Amino acid sequence: MRNRFGHGIQLYLKENQSLFLFTIVLFTMGIIFGAVLVNSLDLSQRHELLGFLNYFFSNFDKSGITDSSLHFQQAFGYHLKTILILWVLGMSIIGLPMILLLLFLKGIIVGFTVGFLVGELQWKGVTFALLGVLPQNMLVVPAMLIAGVAGISFSLRLVRTRLVTRRDSIMPHFAHYSILMGSMFIILIAAALLETFLSPLLMQYAIN
């Protein structure tokens, strides 16, 4: 069973390696663009964001996450909406560019967050980014890239089966697509658990 599953993963990666390469490049461009955006902020915007960051640090250092269950529910809901949006967009031909846009925006958010922390706090910002931002994103980013590639691949298959060949049945591919999306959601739930219970401890360590 494990060998079959592993072989299926390898086959999927091989069939979609060009899409994976494209989405990784797109995501990387988003990170670079987000980091560049930090340099475009004027002095008042920098002071406003830095003041909010210092306020967050001071309050977080005293109490951490006051309601872990609420924080987990919010993270769970956010990831659920993300997967549902990608799943729905993948089932429509016109949703393909929206999937690419979402991946690019995710890269911008990561690049801007890390770029601002490092630019304003130097080595403390590097430490905070590594301990507070990196852990959950080590799961979130790959899951989003895989879900994005799955959506793009299924959307392209819809084009082929509905507009070109009109022969291949779409239902088996739809089942595989939905199972893969569900698997990515499970990974995002794990990321939400990290964000709720592990990252706060690491963030408090970084702040201190």
From TrEMBL:
Keywords linked to the UniProt accession: Membrane, Transmembrane, Transmembrane helix
Any Pfam family: SpoIIM
InterPro entries hit by this protein: SpoIIM, SpoIIM-like
Signal peptide: none
Entry superkingdom: Bacteria
Spans traversing the lipid bilayer: 20-38, 85-118, 138-159, 179-207
Protein name per UniProt: Stage II sporulation protein M
Lineage: Bacteria, Bacillati, Bacillota, Bacilli, Bacillales
